[in-house]
């Protein structure tokens, strides 16, 4: 089991023991189970990109789409192979999907391109009015599709995400996700889940079965009208491998006149991993920082400085040419980032008005106010100025003798990182 875990960074042995068409609990709110939807909903193509995915998780994703979607609403499933290096994902996969009850097409990227360009390829060859993106290790539950399509039918500028349930990377147990969390991000531009604020509960008059307006999407699972996807500029094809594209499309949707929602009556499971199983050609940090810089430079206006000040190393990373994305923003007459913070994400950690950005340093002792990796609302401490911004977990001592203060500091860093282990993929524990 431990050996097989390394292949995909989840318990592959458990996955292989579970049927491809296993039953799942109906985790919907009671009020969702008897909702009625119009019967002329738009049809969707389901686009699933993968790189070296396991057979069982990939085909369980496909099976769950086929088994739990009305076939009248399912145009096709498109599998985009991002240059995988597994023989079973070549001809055996093509042979297998031929026998399925819904048209399943397999297309291949000529070279490793990353999930962004792979999704673009899948979108471009698909034909449904709606495009639904899923990761390659998902399971759709009863009634997942209709509420998503119904929102798009009502307004094609609405981009919708299901509640993402948790499939344990250890046991493959299916656990309901919460309808009381939504998407945000922190100063390092990491996607994070946060509690749905009171204002959003009030707007829905306390009805938890109504869609939640969310500042950001997690990224892997969403549906969008094909024409609207084109209209707002699909994805930034200058982004590589993984990361940043979810915040980029989230900011773009909101700033350019769309709406982003979590449809709480739609539940899809996803295997959340603690580490990534595949390579990032060119270096993980390099790639994620490049993608994040593209996103910050195009969409965040002066607020990009929060990101740069908290991760000073980032400004050394080359982000390539962004002129076409900048002119897209111009063409669509998108609103400033301050509008987004004010109206869509007022509970953001980024202050909308501030006096100065920087550090508070005692020039005599060279010590700085430091959050000591403590949580929000806890007291700050004093620590040697490290000039590394908020990248606490990476802090390394040059010197082998560790002071007691430093030891507790390191311990706290570790705890903080471990606490966020499922989300904090970009900052390895030092
Ligand atoms: N993926 C891909 N090419 C890549 C990296 C990822 O096609 O270079 C696929 C991957 O197989 C998965 C999806 O993109 O289906 C999202 O990646 P992952 O699941 O690793 O991201 P996470 O869910 O951990 O954020
Ligand atoms: Mn995933």
Question: How would you describe this structure to a colleague?
Answer:
With 430 residues, this protein is of the alpha/beta class. It has helices at residues 2-8, 12-17, 30-33, 55-68, 91-98, 115-125, 145-154, 198-203, 226-231, 245-255, 284-299, 304-310, 323-331, 337-343, 404-419; strands at residues 44-50, 74-81, 104-108, 130-134, 138-140, 158-167, 174-175, 181-185, 191-195, 212-213, 222-225, 259-271, 361-362, 367-370, 381-384. 38% of the residues are buried. It folds into 2 domains: 1-271, Alpha-Beta Complex (Spore Coat Polysaccharide Biosynthesis Protein SpsA, Chain A); 354-425, no CATH class. It is built from 15 helices and 15 strands. The strands form 4 sheets. The protein has a 5-stranded mixed beta sheet, sandwiched between helices. Strands 5, 6, 7, 10 and 12 form a 5-stranded mixed beta sheet that branches. Bound molecules: uridine-5'-diphosphate (UDP) and manganese (II) ion. Uridine-5'-diphosphate binds next to strand 1 and helix 6. Pathway: Protein modification; protein glycosylation. This is Polypeptide N-acetylgalactosaminyltransferase. One of its GO terms (molecular function) is carbohydrate binding. Belongs to the glycosyltransferase 2 family. GalNAc-T subfamily.
What are the salient characteristics of this protein?
430 residues, alpha/beta, Spore Coat Polysaccharide Biosynthesis Protein SpsA, Chain A, 2 domains, five-stranded mixed beta sheet, 15 helices, 32% helix, 18% strand, globular, GalNAc-T
